[in-house]
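Here is this case:
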Amino acid sequence: MAVTEIYCLITIMLERRGMTMPRRLLVVATLALAAQAHAAEAGKVVFAAGAVQIAEHAGAEGAAVQEGDLLSTGADGFLYIKTIDNGLFILRPNTQARIVTYHVDTSNPVNTRVKLELIKGVARSKSGEAVKLARQNFRFNTPVAAIGVRGTDFTVYTDQDISRVAVLTGGVVVSGFVDACRPDGAGPCEGTASRELSAAQRNLLLQVQRGQGTPLLLPGGIATLDQASPPRADEPLAKAGAAGSSNIVAEPTLDAQKTHTINQAVVQKPVTAPPVMSDNSGQGQPATPDLPERQLEWGRWTLLNGSAPNISLTGPVNAERIIDGNFVLYWTAGKEFVSPAQGNVGFALKNSEAYIMTPGDAAGSAKAAQLSNGTLNVDFGSRAFTTAMDLSDGATIHKLQAQGNVGANGRLYGDPAYSRPGYINVQGALSNAGGGSAAYLFDGYIDSTRTVNGATSWTHR
């Protein structure tokens, strides 16, 4: 908020309290200056062209951008901002946006807070170093949707009633403003209404309309947004060799029937009842016998090392879908899983598939790896899980681990610490099928350059 706006707001409040003019002016000046001093620098302009405005000033290269500044571009305007953690925020023509919050704590990343707001137009956000370490505290708002990241480069179009999101690298989680997902919230909105999109789905985008909670998956991808508002020829390209991008074969364009099938899975959720998951307390939830248990099915949808895909991206009817790199996981329709209030459950590794990728590898090439000594433990009381396993590349054993949260419906949400070697990001779910089971997809770094991407299934111990 600009100092003039702060001045007016404070003046009105003090007038209503009947404060005399001299004292009122003193208080207003003091508070306004304090507010101005409190606004932190979020980044600097590295490129500006055409009509560009930063707060009350014309945008120019080298200009500082403060938290809360209104950023505007005209019909010919382009604005590139380098954030304080070496991220990138790009505004194309006829766009308005704000960097609402950009607080970075390098010593303790859990305290980092980042929030961006796109009011209208087209903007691109490329995660900086701090965001990659604190993705649970990143939020990108539009008038109708909340966007979280998985360590990401993505583009957004919005007006007041509709938003579209496409991914260049990494992945996003998108939700409309429903239930507990609110514009004033922090971090991603992850729940039954949210949907994920990864760079593996380059030909697809997620769309949210006003009043709609669950995004629709539509054909188009980045090309659709670029067509609506073309980038300049000098706009930086997605980084070659980035995890989740160049090492993945581009997804084929979906035809209309396939898109319709996927959207039916989004908008026509089955009416379900709580199932039973045993825990150490011996208590569970009542189940309804007329619906099957939800199954967990995963496979590789890309071509790797000449090996054909073993699963389709369309998936079972009404199944929820999670995509991470080369793998897709389906959570089929059935009795809704309900996490017990208390208890601990342990799982043993049943099946797995994993690949190690090195920057510069040709698309579709990767080295197969083996997983062993896997553990997965769920603490329902604290709504948390931990997992660990050994990854063998044929010459070296790499220790992998992860932790995260468990949703009320059994959804597994990983922790962003996977940006460090030895840590992985996990996305998965729990099921009552087979007396208790779990499955998750994962990706992460095994050293400073190589990444791993894989899928696992687990049985109740």
In short: Confidence is low (pLDDT under 50) at residues 1-8, 32-37, 240-288. The two ends are 55 Å apart (CA to CA). The helical segments are 3-16, 21-38, 129-133, 221-228, 256-267. The first strand starts at residue 41 and ends at 49.
